[in-house]
Amino acid sequence: MITNTQSGTNIHEIARGIYRINTPVDTPGGPFNFNQYLIVDDAPLLFHTGPRGMFPLVREAVARVMPVERLRYVAYSHFEPDESGALNQWLAAAPHAEALSSSIGAMVGASDVADRPVRGLADGEIVALGQHSVRWFDTPHLPHGWDSGLMMESSTRTFLCGDLFTQGGPGAIPLTEADILEPSEAFRGVMDYYSHSPDTGAMLERLAAERPTTLACMHGSAWRGDGAALLRALAARLAANRQRRTDEAAALAA
After folding, report:
1. Is the omega angle on the peptide bond into residue 143 within 30 degrees of 0, that is, cis?
2. Is residue 45 predicted with pLDDT exceeding 70?
């Protein structure tokens, strides 16, 4: 459903009660897109706020599904404009909403900028929403940001995977079963936004063990399929890239 004909902002249900809000944008590097995810339940949750300037568009999309003032939680993976830039606008629009981030994020960034206290979630903490519940996973430096964390919705096995599997373009397809690893790796190859932490493989394996069936990507299409296999394929690709760089460095030093 298109919610703003001028911007092309649209909203689609990708899993039971979970909606993808997508806005295509033009950038100097070509077309791109920003997604937020809304879980509609007794205590609705929005994952990622969108940039501050995009707030009216995202608010308009949310309002097509539920009253904005009902929003109970505003969560984000790490402190960055497209993840948390509109946080204060959402807190103003939804007076009973509580901001959620990692405990590190609440300590080092959000406490200075948020108009209301930010609740820092512990690794593994569960937030009950009604028929849905989300579990927080600390993922420091995956793909970037010391304060990074991601969420898994248990009843639909939807993984709110943030910047993992970023795909360029307008993100016109709401939910796909086609390959997203190659497009996302092509995008990362041009603009490598990963920190390449030594713990990346272990963190991806921990997420794979949750067996997600829907991946709610922040940029590009959401994806449906064997999420565990896809996360392990990403881990293997990143490990191979690290090994290649190690070999190249050793050859230069020889």
Report:
1. yes
2. yes
CATH number for the domain harbouring residue 67: 3.60.15.10
Question: What is the pLDDT confidence band of residue 248, given thresholds at 50, 70 and 90?
Answer: low
Task: Find the DSSP H helices in 64-146.
Answer: 81-84, 87-93, 103-105, 111-113
pLDDT band at residue 223 using 50, 70 and 90 as cut-offs: very high
**Inter-residue contact 106 to 119 (CB < 8 Å):** yes
- 171-221 pLDDT tens trace: 999 999 999 999 999 999 888 889 888 899 999 999 999 999 999 999 999
Nearest to 35 by CA among 10, 69, 7: 10
Provide the domain limits for residue 40.
2-253
Q: How far apart are CA 37 and CA 224, in angstroms?
A: 15
Q: How many domains does the chain have?
A: 1
Can you point out the beta strands (E) in 49-184?
73-75, 98-102, 118-121, 126-128, 133-138, 149-153, 158-162, 175-176
Q: CA dihedral defined by 199, 150, 51, 238, rounded to 10 degrees?
A: 30
